[in-house]
Amino acid sequence: MSSVLYRSIAVLGRTLVIANTLAVLVLLVCSVFGGFILSYDKVSKWWIWGFWTSPIMYAQNAIFANEFFGNSWSHVIPGSNQTLGVAILKSRGMFSEAKWYWIGIAALFGYVLVFNFLFTIALAYLKRENLPHVLVCQNSLSSSLNLKHSLNNPCSLWERPSDSI
Fold first, then answer.
1. Which DSSP string do the residues of 16-73 spell out, in sequence order?
2. Is residue 125 located within the same domain as residue 136?
3. pLDDT tens, per residue, the chain with 165 residues
4. Domain that residue 91 falls in
5. Are residue 45 and residue 102 in the same domain, yes or no?
6. Residue of 163, 151, 137, 130 whose CA lies nearest to 15
7. I want to staple 85 with a disulfide (CB 3.0 to 4.6 A). Which of 73, 125, 136, 154 is the partner?
8. 55 and 108 fall within a common domain
9. Where are the bilayer-spanning segments (predicted)?
10. pTM here?
């Protein structure tokens, strides 16, 4: 899931600096609102959209549901009708229903489809930046071709022709 997310960010950013900045911002938002640093009941009402849109939240809830509804956590706490796994989930502010395993799987699969679609559309319709791509030193070029080189301009930019690719 993370590979398609960051691949989409790279295509949308179109330059290394912008893509890295967007990737760090997305990583920060997903980490903070994923449910481990801030649980659902600790997130402010105006930031609740970050919680529900974070892919980490769905993955984490699926992992927690898979673990804490397993046989090793199914012992009933004395004096309560809750299992040990449900009590731990409630104490951490996580969702305490077993259905969150399948919700998390479905949400992650949906994120993969959405980000692959976004990646494909962005590759098809966004124009690439016309930046120079190769720096060739005339010294190394002339020595490999046995030519004389100019001392005033030892390195020059060689660009790909604009009609290619």
1. HHHHHHHHHHHHHHHHHTTSSSS-GGGS-GGGHHHHHH-HHHHHHHHHHHHHHTSGGG
2. no
3. 889 999 999 999 988 899 999 999 999 999 988 888 888 888 888 889 989 999 999 999 999 999 999 888 988 889 888 999 999 998 888 889 999 999 999 999 999 999 999 999 999 998 876 666 565 555 555 555 544 444 455 555 444 445 555
4. 2-129
5. yes
6. 130
7. 73
8. yes
9. 12-40, 100-126
10. 0.72
Q: Are 34 and 93 within one domain?
A: yes
Interior CA angle at 49 toward 118 and 25, to 5°? 60
Residue 109: C-alpha distances to residues 7, 9, 54 (Å):
16, 18, 13
Q: Is 85 exposed, middle or buried (0-12, 13-18, 19+ CB in 10 A)?
A: buried
Cβ-contact 33, 43 below 8 angstroms: yes
Q: How many residues does the chain have?
A: 165
Q: What's the Cα-to-Cα distance from 10 to each of 27, 115, 118, 156, 164, rounded to whole Å?
A: 13, 12, 11, 28, 21
Residues 96 and 146 in one domain: no
